[in-house]
Structures are given as structure tokens and as C-alpha cells.
UniProtKB/TrEMBL annotation:
<dbReference type="GO" id="GO:0006098">
    <property type="term" value="P:pentose-phosphate shunt"/>
</dbReference>
<dbReference type="InterPro" id="IPR037171">
    <property type="entry name" value="NagB/RpiA_transferase-like"/>
</dbReference>
<dbReference type="GO" id="GO:0017057">
    <property type="term" value="F:6-phosphogluconolactonase activity"/>
</dbReference>
<keyword id="KW-0378">Hydrolase</keyword>
<dbReference type="InterPro" id="IPR039104">
    <property type="entry name" value="6PGL"/>
</dbReference>
<comment type="pathway">
    <text>Carbohydrate degradation; pentose phosphate pathway; D-ribulose 5-phosphate from D-glucose 6-phosphate (oxidative stage): step 2/3.</text>
</comment>
<dbReference type="InterPro" id="IPR006148">
    <property type="entry name" value="Glc/Gal-6P_isomerase"/>
</dbReference>
<dbReference type="Pfam" id="PF01182">
    <property type="entry name" value="Glucosamine_iso"/>
</dbReference>
<feature type="domain" description="Glucosamine/galactosamine-6-phosphate isomerase">
    <location>
        <begin position="21"/>
        <end position="248"/>
    </location>
</feature>
<dbReference type="InterPro" id="IPR005900">
    <property type="entry name" value="6-phosphogluconolactonase_DevB"/>
</dbReference>
<comment type="similarity">
    <text>Belongs to the glucosamine/galactosamine-6-phosphate isomerase family. 6-phosphogluconolactonase subfamily.</text>
</comment>
<dbReference type="GO" id="GO:0005975">
    <property type="term" value="P:carbohydrate metabolic process"/>
</dbReference>
<comment type="function">
    <text>Hydrolysis of 6-phosphogluconolactone to 6-phosphogluconate.</text>
</comment>
<protein>
    <recommendedName>
        <fullName>6-phosphogluconolactonase</fullName>
        <ecNumber>3.1.1.31</ecNumber>
    </recommendedName>
</protein>
Length: 262
């Protein structure tokens, strides 16, 4: 990957890489970018479909959006919210991405109808990750264009782990090879908890825009690997793309540029 100074951007294998100085600025920038995207899309079509992510930066971005001055310019009644993956835990568990998103943003949006929020079924509602995945696939299909399995997501946010995983698609894990369905149950996740539910590569590939968000020096090797063309089995993040745009939104440490700029 060609180094970019913090605040800069460059293209890499058809992706746009935007580097921000640190994780705090990154979260604020993601929030501003998301507000702008929502307003732009709502000017031409409705409803808007957004896939949320968890993780430190993902949730910090939602918290920044809650504080954003343009937050209420969005018509939240026309926004549908989804998740790229979820920990298979009871509803309300603090480790669920849904719980963290509700605390950071969704609970502060009275205009957002409850029916527009689509969490993956929790462990106290269904018996297995596979049942949760099947139920989520059915809900996705209800909101998809005719003949499609999932909506054409306007933004699909993905965090990335130090191992290069996105959603709950882990290096060398059987979930990478799931085809023909938009969702999958995950067992034996290398990151706790071991049971999860995830969108598949095929579902992610339906998104108009995919944004991969990463911060921290521990992510730098995976960022370099993904942008360098590593195969999905090695670095899954490198194999996600949007049909219209793929953005990598990273801080200087994750881009590997912090030391070079000192």
C-alpha cells in the first residue's frame, strides 16, 4: 500500500483509502460521512438501507453520529438498519452489537420506527446460530428487490480485526466458503464468543458502498495484507467490495504511517 499522510487519500486496487490522524478523528469523520451519505441518498430514493458494525471504532462512530449537528436532518423514518454480524447471546447482552448500537445511537432517535431496526435474532429467541441466520435471511428477503435475497445496502459498515476478519468471516474458517445464502451460523469463532451469526461474502457484495473502518497499530499488518491483494482465506477483509464504491477509512496507526510522519 502506498503510504498516505494522515488526512490524505489514495486509491488501492479500486478502493479509496482515507487516512485520518487518530481513532477519535476517524470516528467523527465516519459519522459525518454517514450523515452526508444518508441525506444524499434520501434526496433520490427511499428507503435507505444501512448495515451497522460493532467494535470500538464502529460504536464510537455511532456515538459521534448521535452528537452530530446534522443528525436530525436525516429522515430516520425512511432508514432501515441492519447488522453485518452478531454475537449469539441473549437479547440485551452488553456484548451484542445491537445492544451497544442502541445505547450509542438508536435509543436517541425517537423518529426511528422500531420496525426499521432489524437485529439478528438472539439466543433467547432461537435455539441455534443457524436458526438465527435463517430467520434473518427471511427478513432480508422481505426488504429485497424482486428476485434478490438482500436489499441493495446503501452503506455497509465493517470493522476489521487484527487478523483481517470482517463481520464474522475469519481467516481459514469454514464460514468463508458458504455460498448460496446471505447469512450463516458460525461455530468455533477464534474470537469469543464462539457462536455468532454473519452475513456472507455474497450478501456483502450486494452493497452499493462498503466502508471498512480500522484503527490502531495492531491492525496495520492486516490493512497492508488486505490492500495488497491477499486471498480471502488469509485476510478476508481484502475480498469485500461494494458495487459502486469501496472505502477504507483508517487512522494513521492502522495505515502504518504514524511513525513515518514523525
Amino acid at each position: 500500500m502506498t503510504a498516505a499522510r494522515p488526512g490524505g487519500a489514495h486509491a488501492s486496487h479500486g478502493r479509496l483509502v482515507v487516512v485520518h490522524p487518530d481513532a477519535d478523528v476517524l470516528a467523527e469523520a465516519v459519522a459525518s460521512r454517514l450523515v452526508t451519505r444518508l441525506l444524499d441518498v434520501q434526496s433520490v430514493r427511499r428507503p435507505v438501507h444501512v448495515v451497522l458494525t460493532g467494535g470500538t471504532v464502529g460504536i464510537a462512530s455511532l456515538a459521534a453520529l448521535e452528537r452530530h449537528s446534522a443528525r436530525d436532518a436525516v429522515d430516520w423514518s425512511g432508514v432501515h438498519l441492519w447488522w453485518g454480524d452478531e454475537r449469539f447471546l441473549p437479547a440485551g447482552d452488553p456484548d451484542r452489537n445491537e445492544t451497544q448500537a442502541r445505547d450509542a445511537l438508536l435509543a436517541h432517535l425517537p423518529q426511528l420506527p422500531a420496525g426499521n431496526v432489524h437485529p439478528m435474532p438472539a439466543a433467547d429467541a432461537v435455539a441455534t446460530p443457524e436458526e438465527s441466520a435463517a430467520a434473518y435471511a427471511a427478513t432480508l428477503a422481505e426488504h429485497a428487490p424482486d428476485g434478490a435475497e438482500v436489499p441493495e445496502f446503501d452503506v455497509l459498515l465493517l470493522g476489521m480485526g487484527p487478523d483481517g476478519h470482517v463481520a464474522s468471516l475469519f481467516p481459514g474458517h469454514p464460514g468463508l466458503d458458504v455460498t448460496g445464502v446471505p447469512t450463516a451460523g458460525v461455530h468455533g469463532s477464534p474470537k469469543p464468543p464462539p457462536e455468532r451469526v454473519t452475513l456472507t461474502f455474497e450478501a456483502i457484495a450486494r452493497a452499493r458502498q462498503v466502508w471498512v473502518v480500522a484503527a490502531g497499530a495492531e491492525k496495520a499488518p492486516a490493512v497492508a495484507s488486505a490492500l495488497g491483494g491477499a486471498p480471502a482465506a488469509e485476510t478476508p477483509a481484502g475480498s469485500v467490495t461494494g458495487t459502486e464504491r469501496t472505502l477504507w477509512l483508517v487512522d494513521a496507526a492502522a495505515a502504518g504511517t504514524r511513525d513515518a510522519d514523525r
